[in-house]
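F.,

This is the one I mentioned.
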């Protein structure tokens, strides 16, 4: 019996062919589907959780341990992630909220996925972890690897932001800048042939990818458990997330689906993906009713954390299953949304503001009704990303140390 088990996890199921596997270390996707060149994402499944297996009032990620894929609490790695505030969005005449994930230990919701991924690495006895990331994911992984005492390698493109690199090295990670177009093959051979544990992107089969981590994305489910509690044991009508690779969109969908299946939530909210108009593979897939996400061309945007040529298909499946949608927003719309947040004292990065920009757009098109409860996921802090801030503000006035001098340039009573 699993009655007192730390986790109810039973195994991994292929989302393409339905094959099930025990709870094993599988970073290469479903072998049968990889062989056929098909989608091969694995998805953890659990002994059917009952209502009491979900935390009544979660204040940390690990309060949701029963439905996280970590059988042994001794392997848990935590920096205090989760338990972020749900703040009302001011300045909009609607019942809108932001789940303020910038308060996580390394300032983004990537802490949720990496806390779980690193804990699972320890459970399977792995001592070296790897990812490719230009930003939040990499910083989060390096922090959790440091906390767990694991070796950490991050593969970066040449244009990686200097601040993230410094932060990662501060946490003791090894960082290599890899020639254009060579990162993925290098990552794959290190994972498949050299024992490195990849922490990210559950997308084997998507765009010919050979690897991906099926455990970490479960961490995002805890966002849903917390929102459900914070709204007074109620699911919202809609959840809007900025989506790049798509792991979080799937995780949030799955979390609410679990709550509904356990008889706690009366519905699964519609999951809405906000993407940049400079690269919106999910919007493309939904508009053209594609069976699978196809790659799209991308170009520069302030929302670079969410620009991917190809979003993973689990995100598309979660959006479809929840009757959600995807919306593309321009940099200008993102800046307007960021200003709205700034007026509340909230500073999230431009990618995160894309969710609010998307919601405003859908409200304008009556695809969100004014009486609906909508939660934006404020995925990461603005402070790491200079593009968050307006570049076109007027110069700051210089004044002498007199009130009269100040009165010449601003209103002082
Ligand atoms: C702040 C922020 N928001 C959103 C995303 C997109 O997350 P996902 O790749 O899970 O869709 C990222 C990914 O790097 C991110 O850093
Ligand atoms: Zn399969």
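My design for it:
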């Amino acid at each position: 019996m699993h009655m007192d088990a730390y986790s109810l996890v039973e195994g991994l199921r292929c989302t393409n062919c339905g094959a099930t596997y025990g709870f094993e270390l599988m970073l290469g996707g479903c072998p049968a589907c990889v062989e056929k060149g098909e989608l091969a994402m694995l998805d953890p499944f659990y002994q059917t959780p009952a209502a009491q297996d979900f935390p009544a009032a979660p204040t940390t990620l690990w309060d949701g341990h029963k439905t996280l894929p970590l059988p042994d609490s001794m392997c848990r790695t935590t920096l205090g992630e989760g338990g972020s505030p749900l703040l009302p969005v001011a300045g909009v005449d609607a019942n809108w909220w932001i789940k303020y994930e910038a308060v996580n230990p390394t300032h983004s919701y990537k802490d949720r996925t990496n806390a779980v991924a690193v804990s699972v690495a320890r459970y399977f006895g792995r001592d070296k972890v790897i990812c490719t990331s230009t930003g939040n994911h990499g910083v989060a992984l390096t922090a959790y690897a440091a906390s767990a005492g694991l070796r950490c390698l991050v593969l970066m493109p040449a244009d990686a932001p200097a601040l993230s690199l410094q932060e990662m090295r501060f946490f003791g990670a090894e960082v290599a800048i890899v020639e254009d177009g060579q990162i993925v093959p290098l990552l794959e051979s290190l994972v498949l042939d050299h024992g490195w544990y990849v922490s990210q992107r559950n997308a084997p089969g998507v765009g010919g990818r050979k690897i991906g981590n099926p455990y970490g994305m479960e961490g995002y489910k805890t966002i849903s458990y917390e929102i459900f509690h914070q709204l007074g044991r109620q699911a919202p009508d809609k959840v809007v997330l900025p989506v790049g690779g798509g792991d979080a969109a799937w995780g949030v969908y799955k979390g609410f689906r679990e709550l509904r299946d356990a008889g706690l939530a009366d519905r699964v909210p519609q999951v809405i993906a906000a993407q940049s108009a400079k690269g919106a593979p999910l919007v493309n897939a939904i508009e053209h009713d594609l069976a699978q996400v196809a790659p799209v061309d991308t170009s520069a945007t302030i929302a670079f954390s969410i620009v991917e040529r190809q979003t993973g298909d689990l995100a598309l499946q979660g959006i479809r299953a929840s009757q959600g949608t995807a919306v593309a927003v321009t940099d200008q719309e993102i800046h307007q949304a960021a200003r709205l947040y700034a007026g509340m004292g909230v500073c999230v990065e431009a990618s995160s503001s894309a969710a609010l920009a998307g919601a405003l757009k859908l409200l304008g098109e009556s695809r969100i009704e004014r009486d609906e409860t909508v939660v934006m996921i404020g995925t990461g802090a603005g402070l790491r990303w200079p593009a968050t801030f307006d570049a076109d503000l007027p110069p700051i006035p210089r004044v002498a140390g007199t009130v009269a001098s100040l009165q010449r340039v601003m209103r002082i009573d």
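The chain is about 30% helix and 15% strand.

Talk soon.
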